[in-house]
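Appendix B, record 7
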Amino acid sequence: MSYVVAVVGATGNVGQEMLNILDELDFPVSKLHALASRKSKGVEVAFGDRTVKCEDLETFEFSTVDIVLMSAGGAVSKEWSEKIGKAGAMVIDNSSAFRMDPDVPLIVPEVNPDDIRLAKKKNIVANPNCSTAQLVVALKPLHDAAKITRAVVSTYQSVSGAGKEGMDELWNQTKAIYGLGDATPKFFPKQIAFNVLPFIGSFRDDGYTDEEAKMWDETQKMLDPDIRLTVTCVRVPVFVGHSEAVTVEFDRPITPDEARAILRDAPGVMVVDKQEADGYVTPVDAAGEFAVYVSRIRQDPTVPNGLSFWVVSDNLRKGAALNAVQIAQLLDESGTIQPKSGYRSITV
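Structure tokens (predicted):
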């Protein structure tokens, strides 16, 4: 069977990565539509060895589509996702618009695949925050083995998490500083080149940011509402790849060797953990890869039953586009959706 698929936001970083991964995973696409704003109508984007011209989101007929991969931001999703769902297409939304909606499943296939049964309520499935996705892939197998009671997470998030404007700002500031030019911030609140910013999103009344709150809200929704999390989200001058320093407390003792063995057997996880100068994974190593990498697994001697470790993943892939396509695969494999036509003949 094959599906008519539309990618909304096809000219953006994540939209383009969605097109790449649909092709890489050989997802059964009978016809693909690339959708964007009116100003991008006619712009060509790559899909495998072909190009597709962008169509106007405002005038597109969604009743002809089986699956919509939505990556155009929260405002666009709030305006369009429910309309698209009512038209009969299944929306996989990469924004935060519906993540905490009780009638919308929030899915990481390695973590809570059974929640896909809720997808037909609104014909919307939510993709988690990019930092949450990689975190829960690492936490889930450990939580199954020894219940996690508390976690402390510090993120080191790349500028691609802020979109093309974030990447452009890092590139332009770096060039300006080397060339003694103007490095005045235009997109981020402070200079990002050769700097780190302990602020992502917007401040809440409790002093945390909404980006930090997303991580504990989403982890609790997908994994366990009783896990207590405290989070500090930091933007770093890295183009692609989010990293996280994680300290976890369990309800029973668990050794680093036991944790390594559990994680090595877990879906979507790669353990690279040698006590050598290069025995860990960095964002540069993870860029372009599908896996969530775990390194630096060690005992935390300051709390009972504590472990600390380092988690890295390509935020445009597992943190966004790859997880969305994996959700599409899960919808197909679980029989949650059926294509309107069943023959596979690629047409673009």
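Remarks on this record: The two ends are 17 Å apart (CA to CA). The CA atoms of residues 91 and 138 lie 26 Å apart.
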